[in-house]
């Protein structure tokens, strides 16, 4: 398996009594990958699997050359995960403290930490919110904070699971633009927004816990739309 990208060979995931993902063999080498499919098809489980949050039951898996089963801590340092609900990711009392918390493992000098946090808040347009209690922010502001916390670590891979689900059109566009902006990271985007999926370079279609198609997004989306019309 190559040391880059996302590679699965015959991977299965069983949760409780359910085979949630089955027979997954995939090589995802594009910089941006959309994961689409109906409710319950296994997309979030796939996102959690490649993010190292759940373990495979069978098969082989390599994320950026790392097997999450043996090097989970290293994988966590090199990737970031963004969910629909930013409350799941916001930990510290104020916005600036929360962004700084993402860098705790880097053990930076205070001046450097402050500089990195300030630059990231500027980039995500949340500088004026720096001292605000993080849990008082609006949903759109919270998602921007969650993105800021994800990107401040310069992750090599960002896994975003329905990151725009609760946002209005303007905030959804802002969040998407940050995710797609090429900062040298790879993006895996789980989404029901087929417009966003079309912006990716590669798409994967899930159904019933299996990968049913992978390829160029327009073709994969057309196939999915045909299923939705049935
Ligand atoms: N911990 C678990 N134990 C048992 N079954 C689970 C568990 N987690 C998820 N499942 C089941 O696995 C299937 C896939 O769920 P998953 O959340 O991955 O789907 P999804 O494609 O992301 O759906 P949605 O679009 O609705 O978010 C569902 O049938 C779900 O009920």
Automatic annotation (TrEMBL):
<protein>
    <submittedName>
        <fullName>Biotin transport system ATP-binding protein</fullName>
        <ecNumber>3.6.3.-</ecNumber>
    </submittedName>
</protein>
<keyword id="KW-0547">Nucleotide-binding</keyword>
<dbReference type="InterPro" id="IPR050095">
    <property type="entry name" value="ECF_ABC_transporter_ATP-bd"/>
</dbReference>
<dbReference type="GO" id="GO:0005524">
    <property type="term" value="F:ATP binding"/>
</dbReference>
<dbReference type="InterPro" id="IPR027417">
    <property type="entry name" value="P-loop_NTPase"/>
</dbReference>
<dbReference type="GO" id="GO:0016787">
    <property type="term" value="F:hydrolase activity"/>
</dbReference>
<keyword id="KW-0378">Hydrolase</keyword>
<feature type="domain" description="ABC transporter">
    <location>
        <begin position="6"/>
        <end position="230"/>
    </location>
</feature>
<dbReference type="Pfam" id="PF00005">
    <property type="entry name" value="ABC_tran"/>
</dbReference>
<dbReference type="InterPro" id="IPR003593">
    <property type="entry name" value="AAA+_ATPase"/>
</dbReference>
<dbReference type="InterPro" id="IPR015856">
    <property type="entry name" value="ABC_transpr_CbiO/EcfA_su"/>
</dbReference>
<keyword id="KW-0067">ATP-binding</keyword>
<keyword id="KW-0813">Transport</keyword>
<comment type="similarity">
    <text>Belongs to the ABC transporter superfamily.</text>
</comment>
<dbReference type="InterPro" id="IPR003439">
    <property type="entry name" value="ABC_transporter-like_ATP-bd"/>
</dbReference>
<dbReference type="InterPro" id="IPR017871">
    <property type="entry name" value="ABC_transporter-like_CS"/>
</dbReference>
């Amino acid at each position: 398996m190559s040391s880059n990208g996302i590679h699965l060979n015959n991977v299965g995931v069983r949760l409780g009594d359910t085979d949630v993902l089955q027979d997954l063999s995939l090589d995802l080498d594009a910089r941006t990958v959309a994961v689409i499919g109906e409710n319950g098809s296994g997309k979030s489980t796939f996102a959690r699997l490649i993010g190292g949050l759940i373990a495979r039951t069978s098969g082989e898996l390599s994320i950026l050359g790392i097997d999450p089963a043996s090097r989970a801590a290293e994988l966590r340092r090199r990737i970031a995960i963004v969910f629909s609900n930013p409350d799941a990711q916001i930990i510290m009392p104020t916005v600036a403290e929360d962004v700084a918390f993402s860098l705790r493992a880097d053990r930076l000098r205070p001046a450097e930490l402050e500089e990195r946090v300030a630059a990231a808040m500027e980039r995500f347009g949340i500088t004026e919110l720096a001292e605000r209690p993080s849990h008082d922010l609006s949903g759109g502001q919270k998602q921007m904070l969650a993105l800021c916390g994800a990107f401040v670590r310069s992750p090599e891979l960002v896994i975003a699971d329905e990151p725009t689900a609760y946002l209005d059109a303007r905030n959804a566009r802002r969040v998407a633009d940050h995710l797609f902006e090429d900062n040298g990271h790879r993006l895996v985007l789980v989404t029901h927004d087929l417009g966003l999926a079309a912006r990716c370079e590669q798409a994967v279609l899930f159904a019933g816990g299996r990968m049913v198609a992978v390829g160029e997004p327009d073709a994969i989306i057309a196939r999915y739309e045909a299923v939705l019309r049935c």
